[in-house]
Each structure stands twice: as C-alpha cells, then as structure tokens.
Design a protein that fits this description.
Elements lengths: L1 H16 L4 H9 L1 H18 L5 H25 L1 H4 L17 H22 L2 H21 L6 H19 L9 H24 L1 H6 L13 H23 L5 H24 L2 H24 L2
Helix pairs in contact: 3-4, 3-8, 3-13, 4-6, 4-7, 6-7, 7-8, 8-9, 9-11, 9-13, 11-12, 12-13
Length: about 300
C-alpha cells in the first residue's frame, strides 16, 4: 500500500511538472494565434497589390509565412527560456515547464526557418525568401537581446513585425522580386501601428516585464506621462501615414473613408488613455488596435 501511495504521488508530481503534451508544446512554441495574424497581413497585402491571384504563390505565402514566423517566435523562447520562468504570462511556456528541451525546440525552429524560407524563395520569389530569413534574424538575434538593454528594442522589433506585409507585397512581383512603392506604404502603416499596439500591451504588463528586466515602454520611467504621450503621438501619426495610399491614387474614396474612421477611433481611445493612464484603458486601447489593423488592411484591399 505504501509503495502504491508513493507511485501515485510520483505520478501526480510528473503531471504537474509536464502540464501538457509535446504536440501542444510545439504549437505553443509557434505562438500560433500571433502567427495567424502575421500571415493574415501578408496574405491581405498580396491580394491588395497583385494583378491576378496565383494560388500556388498564395499557398506558399501562407505556409511559408507561418513557418518563418514560427521559427522567429520559437528562437525567441529558446533565448529567453530562463527569463520566461520569472513572468506570470510566460512561465507556462514549453521550456520553462520542461515540456520541450532546448534541443527539441532548436531542431523544430531550424526546420521551420529553413522550410519557410525555401517555400517563399522557390514558390513566390527569392527576395521574399530573403526577407523572410531577415525577419527571423532581426527578431531573434537583434530584437530579443535588446529587450533587456533599451526601450529602443521595440523600434527594432517593429521591422520584423512589419516585414510580413512587405513579404506579401514582394511575393506578388515577378522574377527575383522587387519592393514596390505601394508595398512600402503598406509596410509603413503596419510599422507605425505596432507602437500603440505593443506599448499599450506593455503598459498593463509592465510589472511582469520588469521581473525579467525588460524595458518595453518608451520611457525609462516606465508607466509615466512620457510613455502615455508617445503612445498618443504614434497613434496620431498613424492617421496621415494610412492616408498615403489614397494620396498616391492606389485606393479610392470608400476605402480611405473606412481608414480615416478607424484612425480617428484609435486616436480617441489613445487620448482617453493618455488623459487617465490606467490599465483598464490601456487594455481597451490594445483591443482597439487589434481590431484596427485587419479593418484597415481589408479596406485598402478593396481599393474602391
């Protein structure tokens, strides 16, 4: 009986130590929901700029984009595995819990990174593959280490964060691939959007980030007026940037009307947050920003 009790206690300990399966661990490593939003941006941009849809390219962009994003997210978790243990929002990730080993994660991320890059290179064009590979390097090897050094890490991270849009636009071009002016405008919209989006998230997670020594808000003072003001400024600046596709005659009046209404909504929420500056309004701003991007991208895609 004693041996049976010991066995049951040991089994219970093992269950607590490994709270989910390896399969689920690999899925968590990819940050699938975030990856889906990233791939959505690439696909919508492709459909926005391409003269006619190539379904092979579209499928390769979807799968290749997801693999590249998964690799970047996975390498990020490998590098931060010890820091993830310190934060409430990340302590149940695959490596802090022991669900996956570093070796398993490295192999998985390596396969995803190489596979995604090759899919983009072969079935869209080489430049798209190069941009996909660059996004992995920037996110994992530049942005990730800088998070504990300077608030400018968010500025650096905004480049790989917006590159899926540029990859989508580049995938629609022929030959080696080229970066078009319209593609750069769409890239710029997503680039600027990331600041109010991420900083609002960083605001209500600031205490958790500080446990790992991350500087994620724009001010060294953290949750101060300077951080709130910069969130508001970038929200305001996003509006004229998002109008540029209309200024250069890439989209019509209906599309830009939706963009302007969305931009004003975001600014109003950012102003409310700036005025009060509490976590509740930061969460509302984060939600509004999440909704803003796909609405604007779909509006621009219609081009009417």
């Amino acid at each position: 009986m004693v041996n049976l009790l010991r066995f049951l206690e040991s089994a219970a300990t093992d269950i607590q130590a490994v709270p989910y399966s390896k399969l689920r661990g690999f899925i968590k490593l990819t940050k699938f929901r975030l990856g889906s939003l990233v791939v959505f941006s690439a696909l919508v941009t492709y459909l926005t700029v391409c003269p006619s849809v190539n379904w092979v390219q579209l499928l390769a962009l979807c799968l290749g984009g997801m693999l590249v994003t998964s690799a970047a997210n996975g390498f990020n978790q490998i590098i931060e595995k010890d820091l993830d243990k310190l934060m409430d929002r990340t302590h149940l990730r695959p490596m802090p819990t022991g669900v996956l080993t570093v070796t398993e994660a490295l192999i998985f991320c390596g396969i995803c990174g190489i596979g995604g890059t090759m899919l983009l290179w072969v079935y869209t064009n080489p430049l798209s593959g190069i941009l996909g590979f660059v996004s992995i390097i920037l996110y994992a090897l530049v942005y990730t280490p800088l998070k504990r050094v300077t608030p400018l890490s968010v500025f650096v991270g905004a480049f790989p964060g917006a590159l899926p849009t540029l990859i989508g636009a580049t995938a629609a071009t022929e030959g080696f691939g080229n970066i078009t002016f319209f593609g750069m405008l769409l890239f710029l919209i997503q680039f600027i959007w990331q600041f109010p989006h991420f900083w609002s998230l960083a605001w209500f997670n600031d205490a958790d980030y500080r446990k790992a020594g991350f500087f994620m808000l724009p001010s060294r003072g953290g949750k101060d007026q300077s951080s709130r003001f910069q969130i508001l400024i970038y929200s305001v600046f996003l509006l004229p940037i998002s109008i540029l596709p209309f200024v250069f005659h890439f989209v019509g009046l209906l599309s830009i009307s939706v963009v302007i209404i969305s931009g004003i909504t975001l600014i109003m929420q950012a102003y409310n947050f700036y005025r009060v500056g509490d976590d509740k309004l930061a969460k509302k701003l984060f939600i509004v920003a999440i909704i803003y991007l796909p609405v604007v991208q779909l509006a621009l895609m219609t081009r009417v």
